[in-house]
Amino acid sequence: LHTNECELAAISGHKVMLNMRNHGSTKKERAIAISEDGGETWGETTWEPALPEPQCMASFVRHSWPSGDKPGLLLFSNPASREGRKDLVLRGSTDDGRTWPLAKLVQPGDAAYSHMAILPDGAIAMAYETSAYGKIVFITLRPGDLEPLSELPLK
After folding, report:
1. End-to-end CA distance of the chain, in Å?
2. Largest CA distance in the chain
3. What residue ranges in the chain does DSSP mark as E strands?
4. How many CB atoms lie under 10 A from the CB of residue 59?
5. Tens of each residue's pLDDT in the chain, 155 residues
6. How far is CA 144 from CA 90, 100, 104, 155, in A?
7. 14: burial class by Cβ within 10 Å (0-12, 13-18, 19+)?
8. Cβ(112)–Cβ(85) under 8 Å?
9. Beta pairing partners, 34
10. Handedness of CA 23, 24, 28, 34 (dihedral sign)
C-alpha cells in the first residue's frame, strides 16, 4: 500500500479520518484510515471505491458538525475519474464519510489538484487547476449546490 498527499478531517466520536492519495497501486480509488485517539495510532487502511481517483491530490474538509436534527457535512473534492485527471467533483457526506451520496460536477473535462476552505458564512471556497495545469480557478459554492450522486454523468 503506497499513499501520499494526505488530508485529515475530524469526525464524530473524537475521531480523525485520514484520506490518502493512492500512489503506485493499480487501485484507482482513495485510501482511508481512522484514528480513535487523536492520531496517536491508526486503524487499518482501506480502499474507498466510492471515491475514485486517477492518482491525484484531493481536498477533504469538515463543513459542519451535526446540530439538533441536522446532520453534519464532510466535503471531498478531486478529479473523479479512473481514466485521468478530469471531471472535478465536489462530494458530500452526512454520515462521517461512510457514504458519499451528494455531489456536484464542478469542472467537466481537464482538472487536477483542488483545495477547499469553509468561509465564515458557510460558503465553500475552492481553488483548482485546469487548462493542462495552466490556469487556477477560484469559485465559491454552497452546500445546497450538491445533489444526489445519481444525477451526475460520471464514468
Report:
1. 25
2. 44
3. 3-11, 15-22, 29-35, 46-52, 59-64, 73-79, 86-93, 102-110, 114-118, 124-130, 135-141, 147-148
4. 20
5. 688 999 999 999 999 999 999 988 888 999 999 999 999 999 999 999 999 999 999 999 999 999 999 999 999 999 999 999 999 999 999 999 999 999 999 999 999 999 999 999 999 999 999 999 999 999 999 999 999 987 666 65
6. 12, 15, 10, 23
7. exposed
8. yes
9. 17
10. negative
Please report, as a single letter, which amino acid is at residue 91: R
**DSSP classification of residue 123:** -
Phi/psi for 61 (5° steps) reads -145, 155
Q: What is the DSSP string of 39-78?
A: TSS----EEEEEEE-SS---EEEEEE--BTTB--EEEEEE
**What is the edge-to-edge ordering of all strands in the sheet holding 124-130?**
114-118, 124-130, 135-141
Residue type, position 23, single letter: H
Q: What is the signed CA dihedral for 60, 66, 70, 75, rounded to 10 degrees?
A: 0
